[in-house]
Design brief:
By secondary structure, the protein is mainly α. 68% of the residues lie in helices and 7% in strands. A two-stranded antiparallel sheet has the order 1-2. Strand 1 (60-69) and strand 2 (75-81) form a beta hairpin. Helix 5 (99-121) packs antiparallel against helix 10 and helix 11 (262-277) packs parallel to helix 14. The longest helix is centred in the N-terminal third of the chain and has 31 residues, at 2-32.
């Protein structure tokens, strides 16, 4: 039972990332009808927003400390972060320690701007083009963004730790009389993903803006005939989708050290999640994300891998094949989506 619960927790952890990225992908496809292969790169940019803020907060200047000397008796040069000199040692150290959570605030305007520029500068020219054209141009954009990150940040992963207060483990099984420990930050990531998903669904369900967007997703032409500038609202949704993927990347940095190809690593899996859930279905994307995350977690158990070697690498694709053979539109796909 302990192992079962632990694998479910691991699956929810992986599924959170899959669900957030797939949710953004589905928002873009559902509103604009664009298959955006650059969405993984947006996830990567979000992760490097956290890296950038951490580097900014760690910017330091050198001073000579007469109280510390080297083996020759010379005063040592010590580095003091600027934030510690501006706000005091305690506040400055706290800002550095909480760089990743603070990057949420730092990244939101950046990701909204990235989404807006991407949509207005490139994507809008491919609305009426074939999906194959959209895939090619957005995949090319993803490679360009990947190489830009590689140029400025290097090819090696960059460690970005979680705050000290959230870096340990918690006994999550104590409530049930079990001894199950799990990293605190992974629990935080799952809770964060749940909040973001709930916020997106609430925004679409209970706000006037969201209701118009949902109407536009169902019948864009009719909404336009009512005098509503649906294109502007869809542009905003593209920015929101970019922000969702970016925030997923920000909070994922302590779990997986950011590197320039992390966007590609998640991209293919996320598209599988979207297809399994049903193209254009937001609930389907979230459901499939968590479902496939849990399946992948169980497939990575040593007992399973000893029976079927390599199953952890292909389980998601096997499940996708089975579901699409039995339900061609995915779990919650709508009729007519990508069936022309």
């Amino acid at each position: 039972m302990d192992a079962l619960i632990l694998q479910i927790l691991n699956g929810l952890d992986k599924g959170s990332a899959y669900a957030l990225i797939a949710l953004g992908l589905t928002l873009i496809f559902g509103t604009l009808g664009v298959v955006n292969f650059a969405h993984g790169a947006i996830f990567m940019i979000g992760a490097f927003c956290a890296v950038t803020l951490s580097k900014i907060l760690n910017l330091s200047y050198e001073t000579i400390d007469p109280n510390q000397t080297d083996f020759l008796g010379n005063p040592l040069k010590v580095k003091t972060p600027y934030v510690e000199s501006w706000f005091g040692p305690e506040i400055g150290a706290s800002l550095i320690d909480w760089a990743v959570p603070l990057a949420i605030i730092f990244s939101i305007p950046i990701m909204l701007a990235v989404g807006y520029i991407m949509e207005r500068g490139l994507i809008k020219h491919f609305y009426k083009r074939e999906h194959a054209d959209q895939i090619l141009v957005t995949f090319g954009l993803a490679i360009v963004l990947q190489e830009i990150i590689k140029y400025f940040y290097g090819a090696n992963p960059i460690q970005t730790p979680s705050p000290d207060a959230l870096s340990g483990v918690a006994n999550v099984g104590a409530v049930f009389g079990m001894d199950i420990v799990y990293p605190v930050w992974r629990i935080v990531y799952f809770c964060f993903a749940a909040v973001i998903i709930a916020a997106v669904f609430s925004f679409l369900q209970f706000t006037t803006f969201g209701m118009v967007v949902r109407a536009g997703m169902a019948d864009r032409e009719t909404v336009g005939l009512l005098g509503i500038d649906i294109d502007r609202r869809f542009t905003i949704m593209f920015g929101i989708a970019a922000a969702v993927a970016g925030l997923a990347g920000v909070m994922y940095t302590p779990i997986n050290s950011p590197n320039y190809h992390m966007g590609m690593d998640f991209l293919v899996l996320s598209f599988v999640v979207v297809v399994v859930g049903g193209m254009g279905s937001l609930p389907g994307a979230v459901l499939a994300g968590f479902m496939l995350g849990i399946l992948e977690s169980f497939a990575s158990m040593n007992a399973i891998k000893s029976l079927i070697p390599g199953i952890d690498q292909i389980i998601i694709y096997v499940v996708a094949i089975i579901i699409l053979l039995t339900r061609p539109r995915g779990l919650m796909g709508r009729k007519g989506v990508m069936e022309e």
